[in-house]
Amino acid sequence: MVADNKIIARGYNMTERLNDPTAHAEMIALTSAFVNMGAKYLPEATLYVTVEPCVMCAGALYWSKLSKVVWGAADEKTVLAE
């Protein structure tokens, strides 16, 4: 996650390590960014992610009020980008 040309948070999939089906990279990055920025909304931030966010992550990203989400590939399992 980037704001003001600075990396404010990073995340990666931790579902297996934490035994938590909600521990997707986007959720980990969001939580880290909220803590680092001391805010529950991130209107100046952009999230860069490898694969299109799932519905759960898309909802969390919506509620965090990010300015932009950039992904590199569509999720072939859901194909939400079409």
What is the element layout, followed by pairings?
Layout: E1 2-3, E2 6-7, H1 15-18, H2 25-37, E3 45-51, H3 55-64, E4 68-73
Structure in words:
The protein is an alpha+beta fold. Helix content is 33%, strand content 21%. It contains three helices and four strands, in the order ββααβαβ. It has helices at residues 15-18, 25-37, 55-64; strands at residues 2-3, 6-7, 45-51, 68-73. It has a four-stranded mixed β-sheet, with no helix packed on it.
In summary, what is this structure?
By secondary structure, this protein is α+β, with helices and mostly antiparallel strands. It contains three helices and four strands.
Uncertain residue ranges: none
Number of helices: 3
Assign a percent range to the helix content: 25-40%
The value of Rg in angstroms is: 12 Å
Strand order of the largest sheet: 2-1-3-4
Number of DSSP-assigned strands: 4
Largest sheet: 4 strands, mixed
Structural class: alpha+beta
Quaternary structure state of the chains depicted: single chain
Strand content: 15-25%
What order do the helices and strands follow?
A: EEHHEHE
Assign an overall shape. Answer: globular
Mean pLDDT: 92
Termini separation (Å)?
24 Å
Labels describing this entry:
4-stranded mixed sheet; 21% strand; globular; 82 residues
